[in-house]
Amino acid sequence: MNVFENLTKHKLSLPEPSTPGGSYVSVNIRGNMAFVAIQFPIRNGNYLYQGRLGDEISTEQAYKAMELCALNVLAQVNKKIGFDNIIGLNHFDAYFQSSENWDDSPKVVDGASDLFVKILEDKGRHSRAILGVHKLPRNFCVGLTATFTILNE
Question: What digits encode the pLDDT tens for the residues 85-138?
Fold first, then answer.
């Protein structure tokens, strides 16, 4: 698996890793587990995809927003751990804020699932949870946390 070749093949690039918006770390390592704090659709300091799914944000736009969240997860992993130290993605939690009648969350969250498998290949296979919330910080439409198994240091 070569993450950077896979990114290039799919015409993608890692954003600059964002810094925490509070009193926490972006990646917390405990033993051989790495917990990545919530990542939002931010690219190089620019807040993107703000609003409610089904109102200001379409399902197609939200798919791209979730893909960007996944790229931000990978940027954090690359900075803190390095891709050669990844055994695999275990699980991620996807969060979304939507209008009352919108109900396409599995399609949106596939933006992250598809990206992880394209870029990490078999190491990107995972389980996931999808959680609708009333409000996300900065009015982002989606957010993503992830847990990886890593090589012991």
Answer: 999 999 999 999 999 999 999 999 999 999 999 999 999 999 999 999 999 999
How far is it, in rounded angstroms, from Cα 136 to Cα 44? Answer: 19
Helix axes 105-120, 59-80, angle to 10 degrees: 40
Residue 15 is classified by DSSP as: P
pTM: 0.96
Tokens of 5: 């070749």
Q: pLDDT tens digits, residue range 40-80?
A: 999 999 999 999 999 999 999 999 999 999 999 999 999 99
The residue ranges of every structural domain in the chain are 3-12+32-150
- Mark residue 131 as left, alpha or beta (left: phi above 0; alpha: psi -120 to 50; beta: remaining): beta
CATH level 3 topology of 3-12+32-150: 60s Ribosomal Protein L30; Chain: A; (3.30.1330)
Q: Beta-strand (E) ranges in 69-141? A: 86-96, 127-132
